[in-house]
Amino acid sequence: MKKALIIVDVQNDFCEGGSLAVPDSKEIIPYINLLMEENEYDQIVLTQDWHPADHKSFASNNRKNVGETIILNGIPQFMWPDHCVQGSFGADFHPDLNTQKVTHTIQKGKNSLIDSYSGFQDNNHFMKTGLDDFLKYHEIQLLEIVGLALDYCVKFTALDAVANGYVTCVHFNGTRAVNVKPDNGKDAIYDMIKKGVTILG
Description:
Elements: E1 3-8, H1 28-38, E2 43-49, E3 69-72, E4 75-78, E5 104-108, H2 131-137, E6 142-148, H3 150-163, E7 167-176, H4 184-194, E8 198-200
Parallel strand pairs: 1-2, 1-6, 2-5, 6-7, 7-8
Antiparallel strand pairs: 3-4
């Protein structure tokens, strides 16, 4: 069975010191590096939040406060601080992440009108990123997922992976939750397990 490692959004803005820092995020980087060193993956894919500066998920572009929710293209959209703006330092992968074995990068969130938590498609399910086509082309059947943040981009990437027919695992030690609400990370684990995602210690 061919397998791929999907590394979700390990970017400067999501790590300590970034504009949307996930608590304890840098702790996962040595674990991810060790996974790549000790395992043979057929493909290693990075996903990268890659927002235009006028992205509608940014509170600043809607005259809203961070933490508010608006309706954007018919679905609820949480208002985030500006983050991972195309070409910025914050959008770069964290320098401690070893990218030498990476075989492919998928950029997401490029449409200013629709957010994209999942590495597979936008939140409205209008536009695919090309990740599924890439994995199917390389005959990947098993996905192991790590990265940031557990309760948003990791969760939705894992749920879409199951929906697309992959055997899907998330490494608990390779992810952290942003926890906008205290139980978001725990709830994300339950949501994934219910849909058939295996949680690895």
